[in-house]
Write a structure and sequence with these properties.
By secondary structure, the protein is an all-alpha fold. It has eight helices and no strands. The chain has two domains: about 1-115, 14-3-3 domain (Delta-Endotoxin, domain 1); about 120-205, 14-3-3 domain (Delta-Endotoxin, domain 1). It has helices at about 5-20, 25-35, 40-75, 80-110, 120-140, 140-165, 170-190, 190-205. The longest helix has about 35 residues, at about 40-75.
């Protein structure tokens, strides 16, 4: 099977896995495409993004639910139950960490360093990098949270610098970046003023 045929097969398998809602296998197929270290097409980028978004999204939702239950058990004074819930929460956090580190490695090793990347690709990848460091910052504590937040901030800044120079203000990736960057300011840095300013600037530039 030729190089091109193998790539097409993996893309097809990723689409098939998406239809079957088997997102772990969708991730595996798209990692093989990314490992070729070639510029991804718009379709391939979106498949990679959707695969990881679904894998991480389910666990982020689980983490929020379990964290809420843990707080309720603590507030009721149910120490034994709270301890069990905490153990479960830590298990989910370990899964989240593994997934985030996995896509961050793919981005750094296989995608971001490609000299042939278009500006659109670069912004997309740095935005993704910012997103997954942000997801780590959502649940990590102390130094781990600080490091994840710093890495997320830098990635969003890198994406924004390229975006402002190379992409039109109405480009969907540029707008999506501004939205996610503003979420980072609001949720991770607890800076609603900066979040609103960033989002409003992006909106005003686009109209």
């Amino acid at each position: 099977m030729s190089f091109t045929d193998k790539r097409a097969e993996n893309v097809y398998l990723a689409k098939l896995a998406e239809q079957a809602e088997r997102y772990d296998e969708m991730v595996d197929a798209m990692k093989k495409v990314a490992a070729e270290k070639q510029e991804l097409s718009v379709e391939e980028r979106n498949l990679l993004s959707v695969a990881y978004k679904n894998v991480i999204g389910a666990r982020r939702a689980s983490w929020r639910i379990v964290s809420s239950i843990e707080h309720k058990e603590e507030s009721k004074g149910n120490a034994d139950n709270a301890a069990k819930v905490k153990e479960y929460r830590v298990k989910i956090e370990n899964e989240l960490t593994d997934i985030c580190n996995d896509i961050l490695k793919v981005l750094d090793t296989d995608l971001i360093g490609n000299d042939n990347n278009s500006a659109e690709c670069k912004v997309f990848y740095y935005k993704m990098k910012g997103d997954y460091h942000r997801y780590l910052a959502e649940f990590l504590q102390s130094e781990g949270r600080s490091q994840a937040a710093d890495a997320s901030l830098q990635s969003y800044k890198d994406a924004t610098e390229i975006s402002n120079k190379e992409l039109p203000s109405t480009h969907p990736i540029r707008l999506g970046l501004a939205l996610n960057f503003s979420v980072f300011y609001y949720e991770i840095l607890n800076s609603p003023d900066s979040a609103c300013h960033l989002a409003k600037t992006a909106f005003d530039d686009a109209i």
